[in-house]
C-alpha cells in the first residue's frame, strides 16, 4: 500500500498506456478522459427523457498543472468532477489515471488508493465540514482510512504538517478548534489540508472560492498555486470566474452545455478566444480598470437545451454567427493552433470569429 | 455631506437633483443585542440619495451592508434595532412608522429585491398570484388592471407573460431574479433597494441583468441602492460608491474617483484583490486577516490590525471621515490633508 500510494511519479512508466492518449509537453498526462459521457434519466419512471450533462468530453490533465474548467451553471463542469472522483459512473467513455482505466478499479483497496490520490475539495466550506467535531477529526479519519500504515502519533504529526502547509498556524492550536470558530477562508483551507494529507496527485476543486469574500479569495488561489509549485500537485479548478482562472491556471477548458467549447493554454485562449461562447463569457466579466463599452452586445439567450438534444452545435440558439451546418452537425473539438482546440464550425472554416465583445 | 455629490461623473443622475435628496440617512446606528453585549452592526452612517441616482454599497460579509439596507427599509427584526440616527424618505421619517403606515409605503414608493429570489418568492404560488397579492394590498381590485400591469412589468424585464402562470421552481435563476425585479416595479417606486441580486448568477446572466437594471432605471427614473461584495460589478453602473468596513463608512464618493484613486487602504486592498482579465498577470495578496469582532470596544481604527499602512496613532485614535477632493475617507493618513473634517 505504501509503495503504491507514494511511488507514483516514476511508477507511471510501467503501467499500460493507450496510443491515442494525448501527451502534454512530451510528458505523459496524469489523467485523461476519452469520449466521457454522462446522461441522467429525468421525469417519472416511464419517462424516456434524458439529460445530457456531459457529452463526449476528452481532456487531459498533466503533472504539476492547474487546469481551470469554466462554464455557466448547468454546463456539466461539476458532473465532470464527480465522474473523475468516481461518484458517478460514466454512461460511456473512459477515464485513465496514470494510464490505468478507472473501470478496471473494482476492489475497495484500489478504490481507496485512487480516491486518496484524487481527492475533492468542495464549494461550501460551511456544510462540507462536520460541525460537531473538532477540525482534526476529518483529517485524522482520512489519514486512518487512506494511510493505515501511520501510527496515531504519526497521524497527528502529519495533520499538523499539512495544516502548516496550507497556512493554518499554529497548527496544533487550530486542529483543536471547532468549524464554527474558523472563518470561511480558514475552513476552505481545512478542506485543502484534508485533501493534501492523502498525498494526492490531483485535487478536484469544485468552485473552492466562490463562497468566500473577495478579499480572502486571492489567498486561496495563491495557496493552490503554491501546492502546485511546492508539492507538485495537479489541480482541476472548477469555476465560473474567468479572471481567477487566468490568475491561477495553466490551461483553460471552457464548457458549454456538456461539451468542451474551447481549450488551450490560458493566456492563448483569453488573448484570442476562438469560440463565440468564450468571447461572450469574456465580454461579461466586469473589469473596473476598463471603460464600459455601453454598446457592447449583451446576450439575452435562453439556457441551452440539454434534454434529448438534437445534433448540432448547442450554442447555435445564442450564436449570432450560426450557419446551416451548426444546426445539423455537432462540431468536434479540433486544434486550430498547437494545443488550442475549438469546437466551432465557423472558426474551423478559418473565419475570424468575433461574436461578442 | 452634500459636498460629495457626483459632479465629476459624466453619467449624472436624473433631472430631479435640484429637488434635493429623496432619501436622507443621518448618523444611523443599528445594534444587535447579543448575550455578549450589543454588537454595533451599523455605526453612524450618513448619506443622501437623489432621485434617479444609483448608489453602490460594497464591503465583505459582516460589514453591515445588508443590515443598513434593512434599517432603511424598516425590515429589522429583534435582536436588531435602530439605536440612533434618522432615515428620512421623501420628507417623512421612516423610523417609528407603524406597520400600517409602512405597508402603504412598501412596494408603492420603495421596494426591496432580496439576494435569493428562490427564498424570497413563495414556492407554492405562481408568479402571477404573487404579483396580484402585492397589487391587492395596495387597493388595486380590477382583475383586468392587475393582469395588464403584471404582464407589462414582466415584459419590461424580458420575460414572456406566459410565465405569470409559472411557479418559481419552473424558472431559471436569472428569470427568478428578473421576476423579483418586475414585482418591485409594479407601482414604479421612487426607490428600489437591491441586496446582492446577482450573486447567485453566472457572469453572463449577471452582466445581462445589470445592463437591464440600468436600462430600466434610465427609462423609469427610480433611484437604486445596490449592495454587493463584488466591487467590480458596480464599477460601471453606480454614480456614487460607499465602501463599508466594520459597520462604518470607510470611503464614500463618486464611483469613478473611488475606483481611479482609492484612498482608504481597505478600498485599495479590495481593488487589488481582483485578478484582471487583461494586462499583465501580477501576483496579488488580497487582504490578510479577518474582519474584527464588533462586540468589543473600538480602540483606534477597526481596520488597523489588517492595514498595510498602519501607524502608531491608528491603534489609539479613532479616525473621522475626512474630506479629500470631494471624497470622504475614514483614515488617519488623510487627516491632515482634509478640506474640513465633519
Largest sheet of chain B: 8 strands, mixed
Outline the biggest β-sheet of chain A. Answer: 8 strands, mixed
Strand % of chain A is 15-25%
Helical segment count of chain B: 10
**Count of separate DSSP helical elements of chain A:** 14
Give the distance, in angstroms, between the N- and C-terminal Cα atoms of chain A.
53 Å
Mean pLDDT of chain A: 85
Q: How much helix, percentage-wise, in residues of chain B?
A: 25-40%
Helical content class of chain A: 25-40%
Please state the structural category of chain A: alpha/beta
Query: What sequence of helices (H) and strands (E) makes up the elements of chain B?
Result: EEEHEEHEHHHHEHEHEEHHEE
Could you name the ranges of chain A where pLDDT drops below 50 across 5 or more consecutive residues?
1-23
Can you tell me the residue ranges of chain B where pLDDT is under 50 for at least 5 consecutive residues?
1-17
* Tally of DSSP β-strands of chain A: 13
Topology order of chain A in helix (H) and strand (E) letters: HHEEEEHEEHEHHHHEHEHEEHHHEEH
Overall average residue pLDDT of chain B: 84
Beta-strand content of chain B: 15-25%
The interface involving the most residues is between: A-B, 39 and 39 residues
Which structural category fits the helices and strands of chain B? Answer: alpha/beta
Describe this protein's structure:
The complex is a heterodimer of chains A (357) and B (342). By secondary structure, chain A is of the alpha/beta class. Chain A contains 14 helices and 13 strands. Chain A has helices spanning 2-6, 8-11, 77-84, 108-117, 135-146, 152-165, 171-174, 184-196, 214-231, 242-248, 266-271, 276-283, 324-328, 345-348, and strands at residues 31-41, 50-57, 60-61, 66-70, 92-97, 100-101, 120-121, 202-206, 234-239, 251-256, 259-265, 334-337, 340-342. In chain A, the strands form 2 sheets. Chain A has an 8-stranded mixed β-sheet, sandwiched between helices. In chain B, the strands form 2 sheets. Chain B has an 8-stranded mixed β-sheet with strand order 6-7-8-3-9-10-12-11, with helices on both faces. In chain B, helix 5 (143-156) packs across helix 6. The longest helix of chain B is centred in the middle third of the chain and has 18 residues, at 203-220. The termini of chain B are close together. Classes of the chains: A alpha/beta (357), B alpha/beta (342). Chains A and B meet through helix 9, helix 10 and helix 12 of A and helix 7, helix 8 and helix 10 of B.
